[in-house]
Design goal:
By secondary structure, the protein is an alpha/beta fold. The chain folds into four domains: about 5-110, 2-Layer Sandwich (Alpha-Beta Plaits), CATH 3.30.70.80; about 125-370 and about 515-635, Rossmann fold, CATH 3.40.50.200; about 370-500, 3-Layer(bba) Sandwich (Glucose Oxidase, domain 1), CATH 3.50.30.30; about 680-775, Sandwich (Immunoglobulin-like). β11 and β12 (about 270-275) form a beta hairpin. The longest helix has 19 residues, at about 50-65. The structure holds 2-acetamido-2-deoxy-beta-D-glucopyranose (9 copies). One of its GO terms (molecular function) is serine-type endopeptidase activity.
Length: about 775
């Protein structure tokens, strides 16, 4: 038997503070067991997962005995073994076991499992130009690409998941379908839904056994709707007459890659999930052989974890697992988050999450489609709003009250009632009325529970125009902007018996301008996680009022969120992968980024929905995806695993930390590499006040015409000179690589702060565009 003994000094220095924090937390806490994710060093004798699992069981047994002679080790405490994306396990541990494991040299880090509550189409293909372009036929609609979706499961009966037009399942597929409550592998899996699994041990350790009486299914079946919606957005097959309510958005619904295969990994239960389960789902998806992973969920590392101190990439276990997936060739598309501008007090920190450079980070935009509806006030004023999903509107004049005036106990609940939070509204005041509030949660269920009959969902933001419908509501609802909110409040104040009518939606309207615009909720950069070196989000895609498959009695559902934007990019990546099987995940992302547009339908810089002002690369990254151009980008900025390892070297991580990402990592190069030279398809440079210039090297790979000559151009910025050398690149063959240097020089009169420019390479056919963010000032 191996004795595991060690001291903190054997751990990399950066880890000590984490361990000490955990130590404090656990010794002060009760003796109850908690779930931990234990990140282990690679052990070369663990060639397969069963050897590894046996060793982890031994390790837990030793830890139990060492910690407490009286305790019997419990075999069930080992929950998940991570084998394909990183090494480690999750388990229920006592504080003594935690202390013991922390001191063992094979342990890289232990993280208390975190539970997350928030999980973060018919028209969007046309809006992105897919429907009449070449990419669909050229990629055969993504057939034979496998998209893994880690989410709330799937409602398999929806026509979106039919397999009528599909050939046999790709032979390399190694995944399975698991049967369970209301989900039968033989009945529900097919040539479209080729895999379905669930992961719940972390969830159950925290919340107890899944309560099926409460409507959850202990199987891949979706009880929430989110996963069904995202999966069908990425790869739903054709299904006609997709609409919600009375004819809203009528059309043909299909995902971005209508023939791609779907593998479902359910890791959310009652809309909650545990990091331990998410990581197990990602690990399994990679083992099963997915090509694309769609993760509409927050990073396990987020600002809600003060216990882990300043955000660092190596503390983010999802980033570590994603690294392992990328190394195996998987394209990862993740949500930027739904925090909008919140907690972004100044320009040095943003709200964007999922920011590792091997992740594609997707923000949300509007499309040009709206569903108009009216609020008619009792005094005759008509206010234009947008229809919610549940469009059985209230044609009769109905009493109206503001949620703020309907609090159960206004001294306690005033603000919450303004937001129609659960259990804050007085049934005596609300019964039979339309309630105006700002819906934040539960689709307005509090109004229904208090006996209300309709909702005016009024935006709280000063300028938002109310286009972002939160979701399908439980009652007839019209969504209006903040100006309307003021008028309606005044009207309510002005009369003893306010009334209103929610009027029939007029026809669905297209060509709303300007479009796209960045959604109010879409999380913004700069990335808070670790120094300034990569612009995040990378890109924006449609994420407002997206219609896709629904669950239970709802054939279709309309949802908004970066969760809806992410599967658009997952599906597009699948199409590009099918059209260009040899492209790396980084090449696919580069193609999506350098062909994106920063202009809207007014030919102006894409605006922000909350203010109408022009956005920046910290709002929309490289811009709004244009799939038809992405399939023929001309040039790509490619990245290999070695480049990503060099990136970690650039962050000056010590060798132990770098090996935590990649056990095969060689030593960092002797001559330090500059982070500015990381071959990312966008540029972010800092010029301290003590310096007058900086430069960034990049290498382009020719994937367009064999012979082509590209000329560089940059957009002018006051007091900044950007020089590209050489300014012309001539290619004589496919896959040929050419390097260039971008030098940014500033004058003394340049104001401190952030400045924006862009670089475009063009051969007359292709335009390869990258944002340049220049930060002048401290550091
Ligand atoms: C690797 O695992 C084996 C058991 O599978 C164990 O005996 C050995 O001590 C481990 N090596 C290290 C360095 O942890
Ligand atoms: C789930 O299965 C039970 C028992 O067979 C059945 O009564 C119920 O209708 C099913 N629910 C759904 C949503 O399919
Ligand atoms: C900006 O935010 C950072 C991080 O929260 C903080 O350290 C800094 O003091 C802030 N600067 C200003 C000018 O508010
Ligand atoms: C609307 O008002 C008319 C006339 O008062 C009434 O007949 C009808 O039942 C009302 N409709 C609803 C849905 O309350
Ligand atoms: C409202 O809440 C306050 C503070 O908790 C309490 O003192 C008061 O009794 C409550 N009033 C009612 C009507 O429940
Ligand atoms: C409504 O009336 C209340 C008190 O009568 C007042 O405090 C409030 O400012 C008024 N609101 C508006 C929007 O007129
Ligand atoms: C109805 O009331 C609102 C709020 O006081 C006011 O702005 C509007 O002009 C009124 N409409 C009519 C027709 O009087
Ligand atoms: C868009 O604006 C640019 C200048 O910002 C101009 O060169 C271009 O011609 C415009 N395009 C269209 C279609 O109006
Ligand atoms: C550029 O320099 C001029 C002075 O030459 C100064 O007035 C202006 O504020 C500077 N603009 C920026 C964006 O730095």
């Amino acid at each position: 038997m191996v004795r595991l003994r060690g001291t903190f000094t054997l751990l990399p220095p950066l880890l000590v503070s984490v361990c000490l924090l955990l130590w404090t937390e656990t010794t002060l806490g009760s003796a109850h067991k908690s779930t931990y994710i234990v990140h282990m060093e690679r052990n070369s004798s663990h060639t397969d997962i069963s050897i590894k699992a046996a060793w982890y069981r031994d390790l837990l047994r030793i830890a139990t005995l060492e910690a407490d002679q009286l305790l019997e080790p419990d075999e069930d405490d080992l929950h998940h073994v991570y084998h394909h994306t990183f090494d480690g396990f999750s388990a229920l541990l006592t504080p003594q076991q935690v202390a013991y494991l922390q001191s063992s040299p094979q342990v890289i880090q232990l993280q208390r499992d975190t539970l997350h509550k928030e999980i973060h189409t018919t028209h969007s293909p046309e809006f992105m130009g897919l429907a009449d372009g070449h990419l669909w036929p050229e990629s055969n609609y993504g057939e034979d690409v496998i998209i893994g979706v880690v989410d709330t499961g799937v409602w398999p009966e929806r026509p979106s998941f039919g397999d009528q037009q599909l050939g046999p399942i790709p032979s390399r597929w190694k995944g399975i379908c698991e049967s369970g409550t209301n989900f039968s592998a033989s009945e529900h899996c097919n040539r479209k839904l080729i895999g379905a699994r669930s992961f719940y041990k972390g969830y159950e350790a925290e919340y107890g056994v899944i309560d099926e009486a409460g409507g959850e299914y202990k199987s891949p079946r979706d009880s929430e709707g989110h996963g069904t919606h995202t999966a069908s957005t990425a790869a739903g097959t054709w299904s006609h007459m997709a609409s919600v309510g009375p004819g809203l958005g009528l059309g043909t619904a299909r995902g971005m890659a209508p023939k791609a295969r779907l593998a479902i990994y359910k890791a959310f239960w009652n809309a909650r999930n545990s990091d331990a389960d998410t990581l197990a789902a990602v690990d399994q998806a990679v083992a099963d052989g997915v090509d694309v992973l769609s993760l509409s969920l927050g990073s396990p590392y987020d600002q809600a974890r003060p216990d882990i101190g300043r955000p660092q990439l190596w503390k983010d276990m999802l980033a570590i697992a994603a690294y392992g997936a990328m190394k195996k060739g998987v394209f990862l598309s993740l949500t930027a988050g739904n925090e909008g501008l919140k907690d972004r007090p100044n320009q040095t920190t943003g709200t964007v999450n999922n920011v590792a450079p091997w992740m594609t980070t997707v923000g949300a935009s509007t499309t040009d489609r709206i569903f108009p509806a009216d609020v008619v006030l009792g005094n005759g004023t008509v206010i234009q709003g947008k229809s919610g999903l549940n469009s059985k509107l209230l044609e009769n004049m109905t009493s109206l009250i503001s949620g703020c005036d309907a609090a159960k106990n206004s001294s306690v609940n005033y603000l919450k009632a303004c937001l129609c939070y659960p259990d804050t509204l007085s049934p005596a005041l609300v019964r039979g009325k339309i309630v105006m509030c700002t819906i934040q949660v539960d689709k307005g269920a509090a109004v229904l529970e208090a006996g209300g009959v309709g909702i005016i969902d009024a935006s709280w933001f000063t300028q938002g125009d109310g286009i972002e419908i939160q979701s399908d509501y439980v009652l007839p609802t019209v969504r209006v902007g903040a100006t309307a909110r003021r008028i309606i409040t005044e009207y309510i104040n002005s009369t003893n018996s306010p009334t209103a009518q929610l009027r029939d939606p007029r026809q669905t309207q297209y060509n709303r301008a300007p479009a796209p615009a960045v959604a109010t909720f879409s999380s913004r950069g700069p990335s808070y996680a670790y120094s300034w070196n990569v612009i995040k989000p990378d890109i924006i895609a449609p994420g407002v009022n997206i219609i896709a498959a629904g669950i239970k009695e709802k054939q279709y559902a309309m949802n908004s969120g970066t969760s809806m934007a992410c599967p658009h990019v997952s599906g597009l990546a699948a199409l590009l992968k099918a059209a260009h099987p040899t492209w790396s995940p980084a090449a696919i992302r580069s193609a999506l980024m350098t062909t994106a547009t920063t202009k809207d339908s007014n030919n102006a810089t894409i605006t922000l929905l909350e203010s109408g002002q022009s956005g920046t690369p910290f709002d929309f990254g490289s811009g709004f995806v244009r799939p038809e151009r992405a399939t023929d980008p001309g040039l790509v900025y490619d990245l290999s695993t070695g480049d990503y390892l060099n990136y970690l070297c650039m962050l000056r991580y010590p060798p132990q930390i770098i090996r935590a990402f990649d056990a095969d990592a060689p030593a960092c190069p002797a001559t330090p590499i500059r982070v500015e030279d990381f071959n990312y398809p966008s540029f972010l440079v800092t010029i301290p006040v003590s310096e007058a210039s900086t430069h960034a090297d990049r290498t382009l790979t020719n994937v367009g015409s064999a012979r082509a000559t590209y000329v560089a151009s940059v957009t002018d910025v006051a007091n900044i000179t950007i020089d590209v050398h050489p300014p012309i690149l001539s290619f004589n063959g496919l896959n040929e690589k050419k390097s260039f240097t971008l030098t940014v020089s500033v004058t003394n009169s340049l104001e401190d702060g952030i400045h924006y420019s862009s670089l475009t390479w063009s051969d007359g056919v292709h335009t390869v565009q990258s944002p340049i963010v220049i930060r002048r000032g401290s550091e």
